[in-house]
Structure formats: structure tokens, C-alpha cells
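Q: I have 398 residues here and want to know how they pack in 3D. Can you give me a structure?
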Amino acid sequence: MWLVESVSEADMDRVHHPLMSPLVWDLAHIAAFEELWLCMRTGGHEPIHPDLLDVYDALETPRAVRGDVPHLDLADACEYLGAVRRRSLEVLDSGAGGDVWEMVVQHEHQHNETMLQTLALAEPGVFTPPERRQLPRGAVRTGGMVRIPGGPFLAGAAPAGFAYDNERPRHEVELPEFEIDALPVTSGAFMKFVESGGYDRREWWSADGWTWAREHGVRRPLRWTADGRERRFERVADIDPAVPVMHVSWYEADAYARSLGKRLPTELEWEKAAAWGPGASAPRTYPWGEAEPTHERANLDETAFGPVPAGALAAGASAYGVIGLVGDAWEWTGSDFRGYPGFEPFPYREYSEVFFGHDYRVLRGGSWATRPRVAHNSFRNWDYPQRRQIFAGFRCAA
């Protein structure tokens, strides 16, 4: 609730963008998922709102209709969330649940980011972040590419502990040598692509990307304005050339890479650059090692509401020296979303398997809006290649 406590009741119930749910639906969905897995399936409780189980099932009620179906208002959603949480704590006291707890926490964290996407798309005045904390300035590295040697590495999540089904099984992958950008592509670099006519150069675009850009009149990243500024929640400000570019589609990222004679990294190249290193025998959980991030965002005062300048956090480098892989912008990869060899659905088929195929592209790394316990090296995100509401950027490979 801390995230949306300043949002009015009317704005909580409004559909702010056709791609997004009403914020009040997200709140009650968080409660419904927790109730299903912890209170009902683990604790044996009956549902509090049996008539609304389908309403808050993400597959039964897709985003396009969530504003139209009967759903709880803000007061009732908050009451529902509180009642579920009390029951969940009883389950916790009983010692039951195991890895289900981690799944429920990560699910809530993922919806926190989805709600931030909605708030970023809403009209000015709906949401005003608190005063942002000071961000580090001054890049410790300004660019270039890092060579990743060929050879085997272990991809995917370890067998112990909770991980989503699409992260498993851990398996050995043999990759040839490649190069990857040391830093994510910045807004300043992408501005040069825009100013050089990148959106008019057919030879740099895939056939589908060119058709999409022409049909929708796309001329710049989603949050950039025609006069060279950028919308950031409640305000419009000058584009910061030093930060990773965000709110670009896979098509735009692919065209930019092609313009330089490069390409997007495959997701396994990305993971090797993030998780492996010279002499490694096991992959790292985070690019910098095993230590969990110290900036777990428990409240708004600890949230920066934006990325840091590319290259500013040298301590976050991977063993190969690649910087900014986690925590500023999701990064598009060149890979379709598919299961690993030996994939088995868990804990339910609809989490991953129904999305496998050419329609979805994989994103890696996590953004400034991603909770740290979600943003680890093996986590796989996915979306349609035309989507731009995500806090997503990219880096190039060769």
C-alpha cells in the first residue's frame, strides 16, 4: 500500500492505459494470489470472496477487460488484503508453506513494478514521487566492449530453493567467443540514432519492426517528447544523456544495434557475461557475487525512481567487467522465450509454458523498479517485441 497511498480513490479505479489494469485490481490480485497459494492450498482456508476468484485470475480476466468487470473498490480491496495477510501469518506461524512463501513474495514484487509502469503512463497529477534520493554521478567507465571467451558455462537456477520453472533445469551451455557492451546503451547514444534519422532508415529495421514503426508513427522512445525532453511521472525534464535509455521496444533496440553493425545479445550470452567468469566453477547469483543488494526498497524514501548513470557503480560489475547488468533497466535480448532442455512446469503451467514461442522476446536484468530479490542473473522476463511500457533498455553484442 505504501506505493499508492498518495493516489486518489478515483485514480486507483481508473484504466490509465489500455495495456494496464486499474491499480485497485492489482492490489486485490496480489491478495487473491496470496490467498490461493498460502491460505487455501497450504493453510486449508475457504476463500473470502469465492465469487471473485475468476475476476482476479490473470488468465481468466485479461488486462483488456479488468476495468469493466465487477471488482472490489479501494476500501474493500484494502480490507481483503489485510484479511488475507492475517491468515497468511497464521500459516507462517504453523511452519507450513516452504518455497511457496518466496513465490508469493516475488509475485507481489513483480506487481509492484507493474503498478509503477501504470503510474508512469498515467496523466500528470495522478502520482508524484517523493523527493528522489541523490544518485551517483560520474561514470567509472564510458563505453567499449568486453570480450567473453568461448567455452562452457552453467546456465539457469540451482536445483535448491525457489526459482520459477523457466529458470530450470540448470544445464551446461557451450558458447563461442563474443563481445558485449561494457555498459547499457545510454539516452545520449540513442539520441544520436534518432537525430541521424534512425527511424527512417529501412535497412536498419527488421520487416516486422519497420511495419510496426510505420503503422504507429513511432519516432522516439515512448517517454520522450517531440521537443527533446522526457516525461518522468509528474514532470517533463531534459533528457539525461548519461542514463540507460528506457521505454524502447525490442524493434527499436534491434534497429539501433543493426545501425552499428552489431546485434542484441542472446539471453545465454547475457547470462554468461553476468554470472560466469575466468576460472568459475559455479555461476554467481548477482553480477557482483553472492551478496544480496543492500538497497532492498522497503519504503518510498529508499526508492530512486530512476536509473543511475551508466557505468557509475563499478562495484556492480560482473567478473568479466560488464557493468550495469542488474538494477537500472531491463535489457532486451535477441532470444525468443522458450523452455530450457528438460523444462517441467512448476508450480502451474500457466506461469511460463503458455508464453513459449516466437511471439515473446526475453528480457534480462531487472530495472530500478524491480525489487532486488527478483533481479538475479537467472531470472527471465518476457514480453511482446513492440512493448514499450516496461522500464526496458538494452546493450549490444558482436
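Q: Anything worth noting?
A: Confidence is low (pLDDT under 50) at residues 295-301. The longest strand covers residues 330-337.
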